[in-house]
Amino acid sequence: MGSAMSAAGNGRDGSRSAPLRVDAQRNLEHVLRAAREVFGELGYGAPMEDVARRARVGVGTVYRRFPSKDVLVRRIAEEETSRLTDQARAALGQEDEPWSALSRFLRTSVASGAGRLLPPQVLRVGVADEGTDGYDGTRVPQQRTTPGSGELRLVPEEAPMVSPDDDAGAAALLEVVGRLVDRARAAGELRTDVSVSDVLLVIATAAPSLPDAAQQAAASARLLDILLEGLRSRPV
Fold first, then answer.
1. How many angstroms separate the first and last alpha carbons of the chain?
2. Is pTM, for the whole model, over 0.85?
3. What is the domain range of residue 203?
4. Is 111 strand, coil or helix?
5. Which of 15, 18, 30, 151 could disulfide-link 128, Cβ–Cβ 3.0 to 4.6 Å?
6. Which residues sit opposite 154 in a β-bridge?
7. Residues 62 and 98 in one domain
8. Domain boundary, last residue among 46, 73, 100
9. pLDDT tens digits, one per residue of 11-61
């Protein structure tokens, strides 16, 4: 994903190819901030016109920076995937206790709202066939869970925004989150049937978009507390 976005920035949209004028840089920042807000609230299906209105610029300004919606989506998805990967690495490096590391990552990620902006090929899930061991393709690491009917797994997303470089960014995130999951499971603190995809679903769903910021923060904290209780292993 990174090199795809570099190409988009250095060639197609020009946003990273040369120093921008102050007003152009300001417009770019407004567009990116607006895109995060709009896509976070409405999903990546939201039209570019909505992004332009939120940024208070003309839609032509958006298209001058990002000549297609896919280019803008890739930029936002790359940045949010990278942010979550950094948050997972920080949790691994700063917390010795496995459950504390996993819960720290979840709380930080939900608070940032990045889960609502992950690319579809990371968040899309399907139901694995009974007896399988999870999706074993090149997109994501094999899910290390107890196999069984109804197990969630990550599956490829057939969408024009997906590229091999997008896969690399997703794989980096899934690898480091997988380490958090493995550590917590090995310590007996995480349910044995919880997979990486389950953890990503928590991040994606525990940050509801509400009009009032205080209500959103309170709802997110409450929902995450409940979901964490559901993930945690309990003595038999």
1. 43
2. no
3. 77-231
4. helix
5. 151
6. 125
7. no
8. 73
9. 444 444 555 577 788 889 999 999 998 998 888 889 999 999 999 999 999
